[in-house]
TrEMBL record:
Domain NADH:quinone oxidoreductase/Mrp antiporter transmembrane: 150-264
Gene Ontology molecular function terms on file: NADH dehydrogenase (ubiquinone) activity; NADH dehydrogenase activity; ubiquinone binding
Species name: hydrothermal vent metagenome
BP GO annotations: ATP synthesis coupled electron transport; electron transport coupled proton transport
TM spans (from-to): 6-27, 54-74, 103-123, 130-148, 154-176, 197-219, 239-261
Keyword Transmembrane annotated: yes
One Pfam family named in its UniProt record: Oxidored_q5_N
EC number: 1.6.5.3
Keywords on record: Membrane, NAD, Oxidoreductase, Translocase, Transmembrane, Transmembrane helix, Ubiquinone
NADH:ubiquinone oxidoreductase chain 4 N-terminal domain sequence ranges: 93-144
Protein name: NADH-ubiquinone oxidoreductase chain M
Length: 264
């Protein structure tokens, strides 16, 4: 009975639950009453914003509760990945594969624990485009969880680089006040930070993509478990590490790639 319960796609449910919440917010906004110009305003806008906050909080709390269930199902006495889900995806050694180990399960818990706090912290401070803000955060949570549970390198890349989109929007739209001079133009600090973040991430992503392509060409698969067992040349491993590090350092952000953060 326990094995049957553990065999359910809990990681997929956990990963995409926040995204479902984002779709609920979109649906709520689509069903709201609009004026003659097709714009939601007045009490109807307030209702949409209130619904967005409640839905975002409900789904982030729900994701946290699911993650607690996943943690309860995880057997710390066993080595390797658990709660593994795998299905054919793009072919050629690329699959939809999820799983957790003793490290990633803790990062999943940390992510789902922090997100409801983020929603509560922005409950009153975010006053413009509230529904868009909550959608961006829910999409970001799905992508962050996906990063920690992916067991396919290509799937990991999709989640990892996909997080650039909501992060770019959150920084660029709801970031800090103030202005910055850039190439002779005066820009809002948040826009300046978002552009710098985008450029840094783009460069780091190219290094990561090249490294992944080389690994795939050598091993013939993007399965992370299989890649762990593959005997890559020792000299190449150093360059692969540097390529992955360059991409990770920007998003952390780590010195000296952190300069976009103070302006955000």
């Amino acid at each position: 009975m326990v094995e049957s319960f553990a065999a359910q796609p809990w990681l997929s449910l956990l990963t995409f639950a926040p995204l479902i919440g984002a779709l609920f917010i979109v649906a709520s906004r689509m069903m709201a009453k609009k004026n003659d110009d097709g714009v939601i305003d007045g009490p109807d806008l307030e209702q949409v914003e209130r619904n967005a906050r409640i839905i975002a909080l409900a789904f982030t709390v729900g994701a946290f509760l699911i993650s607690l269930g996943v943690f309860a199902l995880y057997d710390s006495s066993l080595a390797g990945f658990q709660l593994v889900e795998e299905t054919a995806w793009l072919g050629g050694g690329i699959s939809y594969k999820l799983g957790v180990d003793g490290i990633s399960i803790l990062f999943v818990l940390l992510t789902t624990f922090i997100m409801p706090i983020c929603i509560l912290a922005s409950w009153d401070s975010i006053k413009s485009r509230v529904a868009d803000y909550m959608i961006a955060f829910l999409v970001l949570e799905t992508l962050m969880i996906g990063v920690f549970v992916s067991l396919d390198l290509f799937l990991f890349y999709v989640f990892f680089e996909g997080s650039l989109i909501p992060m770019f929007l959150i920084i660029g739209v709801w970031g800090s006040k103030g202005t910055k001079e850039f190439a002779g133009f005066t820009l809002p600090s948040r826009v300046y930070a978002a552009l710098k973040f985008f450029l840094y991430t783009l460069i780091g992503s190219l290094f990561l993509l090249v490294a992944m392509a080389w690994m795939y060409a050598q091993a013939g698969t993007t399965d992370i478990v299989a890649l762990q067992q593959f005997d890559f040349p020792a000299g190449a491993q150093k360059w692969l590490w540097l390529a992955f590090f360059a991409s990770f350092a920007v998003k952390m952000p780590m010195w000296p790639f952190h300069t976009w953060l103070p302006d955000a």
